[in-house]
Design brief:
mainly beta; Maltoporin, Chain A; 5 helices; 38 strands; about 5% helix; globular
């Protein structure tokens, strides 16, 4: 422990000095804090523009910054921040449509449907920086603004950088998203654009060659441990851009201003077109390859390369029914006096975060709606879209051209209608192309019981073509040519949430019937499991808060039957015990406590860096122990500070464990970070 804190004393005092020696910055910060506050500063996801969430300003969970520890189902990496990762809980519906097969870095990436789009009344900025041992750094930044409430734009950026504890393990992972929305004051049309960029430069060591946690493995430094590869390097890069325009069809109303009046469309239908383009590039290089390690992939003794590029040119035409109309004829709106009535609702994702019971002015991530009183909102929305995607492929100068032609449609309840009845139904069918005859059906129905919670039932059926490299891998020395049957997953279940300021509870269960599950049998061979697999996932959570003391728990129970390929821990748990309060006339808000995570032993998959795949193995049973993290979080105005000691249990428990065969988990480490928010 003393060695841990000694190595981190310098960054700790540098951060403290920076905060203390910036009175000018703090003065500007205070002035911004005193600016008029608005309840209408919100964000939403691109696919759900009617469901808004308040900007979170609390200190709860700010110690969880590494993309593995996240709301909901968590991931486990192969020992270093930014390295390849896999979900700990069964998640068969994460990739839809054309799947390249390179998904090892998905936990760190932006997607069109994961971009947060902000609707703010004044410019909003936030920057965060965290530093830890072994040159570990995390940086994030975001900016959002609007012009005359017609043009919203913003940018989000994240960066993970870590040297790692072992040889050839460093990572540099970046994510970037840029968006813009424009609607004229007549509301006759709308334009949206999103660009996402993801990159991962990751050194790959193939795992250690000895048991570094054995009693006789006395290593002066973890960097002295022998590894499989000394020059392996993965370079992943993705960039995608989308432009979407829609013409609004509906009744018009007159809007009066101080100097003029104009007609504004209340859209009942939206008809439009969307264009998208992008490229996924995967490059693996090893200047000193080991023929025994690479096997059939091995090419030349002095150099080994693998290049794969997947391009996208997408086209979509769509029509939407918004569920809204004017209440009467010739309605007018007085823009000089209108205010927006923001009504907060119970969040659908209530149990994806801890409850803020102390701060009355912090904004929880609850859905926010902004209806106009003169607009009638029916509890029904619908959409239909026709897509054509052109997909050129280049693998080591072997060229292929794929495409997909498919139809999507669905209907759901209208969040702005304030109905207690909740429902959704969506379907997608692929007429032609690589994913020909793929079918996705997703449906749910629920009821909002008000103060008694919410109940919901869910059903999913996905018939899916295998990922591209599972059937068409063109390496310089190794080929994978397959024609697999489609994987089918039928899932159904339900959930219930009960929110309360003292004790809240959530429970959900999903049963999955899986046929033809795709997997890698070893580093070189893709297979499908023709047996009838059955996976039951049960999750329960609680949030207990009494006078500042919190005890929060999430427990997942998984049972897998009839499948050789699906490898999951039977139990996964996450608990937090902490105390939070306000001091010094509520100027200082702090929380202190512990996070504990544990999953039971299981035969976890082995990772192969060249193919980017986790493949099954029966030789090594991965044994885990409870991982204890201590944290202290502080907030003064809009400055938030976190200090964290990870894996304290390594000091008094077992020496360590492996997250994948040959890949040791991270050791004890001290980390500290700041996050600053600006308005105006």
């Amino acid at each position: 422990m003393s060695d841990c804190f000694g190595k981190c004393a310098a960054p700790f005092f540098l951060l403290a000095a920076f905060i203390w020696l910036n009175p000018i910055f703090l003065k500007a910060q205070t002035e911004a804090e005193q600016a008029p506050k608005s309840q209408n500063d919100t964000w939403y996801y691109f696919p759900s523009p009617d469901v808004h969430y308040g900007i979170d300003s609390s200190i709860i969970n700010i110690e969880e910054f590494n993309a593995m520890q996240r709301p909901g189902r968590e991931y486990l990496n192969i020992g270093n921040t930014g390295s390849a990762a896999f979900p700990l809980v069964f998640s068969p519906f994460q990739v839809k449509g054309f799947n390249t097969g390179y998904n090892q870095f998905e936990a760190y990436q932006y997607r069109f449907d994961s971009v947060r789009m902000y609707q703010v009344m004044r410019p909003y900025s936030q920057i965060g920086y965290l530093v830890g041992q072994r040159v570990e750094q995390y940086f994030n930044g975001k900016f959002a603004a609007q012009h005359k409430q017609r043009f919203q734009y913003g940018v989000n950026f994240t960066r993970f950088n870590s040297r790692g504890a072992y040889q050839n393990q460093s990572t540099n992972v970046n994510g970037f998203s840029l968006y813009g929305n424009y609607t004229p004051r007549t509301n006759s049309f709308s334009l949206q654009t999103i660009m996402v960029f993801n990159s991962a430069q990751v050194k790959e060591n193939g795992g250690v060659t000895q048991d570094v946690f054995a009693p006789n493995a006395a290593l002066f430094s973890k960097e002295l441990a022998q590894v499989q590869l000394s020059n392996g390097f993965n370079n992943y890069q993705e960039i995608k851009w989308m432009l979407r325009g829609a013409y609004h069809i509906g009744q018009k109303r007159e809007v009066k201003t101080d100097s003029t009046s104009y007609k504004e469309t209340v859209p009942t239908f939206k008809v439009g077109y969307a264009f998208s383009t992008g490229r996924d590039k995967n490059k693996y290089v090893d200047a000193r390859p080991d023929s025994a390690y690479y096997g059939s992939y091995f090419t030349f003794q002095d150099s080994m390369k693998h290049d794969a590029s997947f391009h996208l040119v997408g086209n979509e035409v769509f029509i939407e029914f918004t569920g809204q109309t004017l209440r009467g004829k010739n309605k007018t709106r007085d823009d000089r006096q209108e205010t927006i009535d923001s009504k907060r609702e119970e969040p659908d994702s209530f149990f994806l975060q801890k409850v803020d019971s102390v701060s009355s002015d912090s904004v929880s991530q609850s859905p926010v709606s902004t209806p106009h009183s003169e607009i009638r909102q029916t509890n029904f929305k619908a959409f239909a879209s026709l897509h054509f995607d052109y997909l050129p492929v280049n693998q080591n100068r072997f060229y292929d051209s794929e495409y997909n032609f498919y139809l999507q449609g669905g209907f759901q309840n209208n969040p702005l209608a304030k109905s207690r009845l909740l429902y959704t139904a969506k379907v997608a069918y692929y007429f032609a192309g690589y994913n020909q005859n793929d079918l996705r059906i997703d449906g749910s129905v629920g009821y909002n019981l008000g103060k008694f919670g919410k109940a919901e039932g869910v059903v999913n059926y996905h018939l899916t073509e295998a990922p591209y490299i599972y059937q068409n891998y063109w390496g310089r020395a190794h080929r994978i040519i397959n024609d697999f049957p489609k994987q089918s997953v039928l899932a159904f279940g339900g959930s219930y949430t009960f929110p309360h300021r003292i004790i809240s509870f959530s429970a959900d269960a999903m049963y999955h019937y899986v046929k033809n599950y795709f997997y890698f049998q070893n580093a070189e061979t893709a297979r499908f499991d023709a047996s009838n697999g059955n996976v039951l996932v049960v999750h329960a959570a609680n949030r207990l808060s009494i006078k500042g003391f919190h005890f929060d728990n999430d427990v997942w129970f998984q049972v897998v039957g009839g499948s050789y390929a699906i490898r999951l821990p039977q139990w996964v748990t996450r608990s937090s015990i902490y105390y939070e309060t306000r001091l010094f006339k509520r100027v200082l808000w702090f929380s202190i406590g512990f996070d504990v995570r544990y999953n039971v032993p299981f035969f976890g998959n082995t990772y192969h860096p060249l193919s980017g795949q986790f493949f099954v193995q029966d030789d090594v049973r991965l044994n885990f122990y409870p991982v204890l993290d201590g944290f202290l979080n502080l907030k003064v105005k809009s400055l938030r500070i976190t200090a964290k000691v990870e894996n304290i249990s390594a000091e008094f428990g077992p020496r360590g464990y492996y997250t994948s065969p040959g890949y040791p988990a991270a050791d004890l480490a001290f980390k500290m970070g700041v996050s600053w928010r600006f308005w105006e």
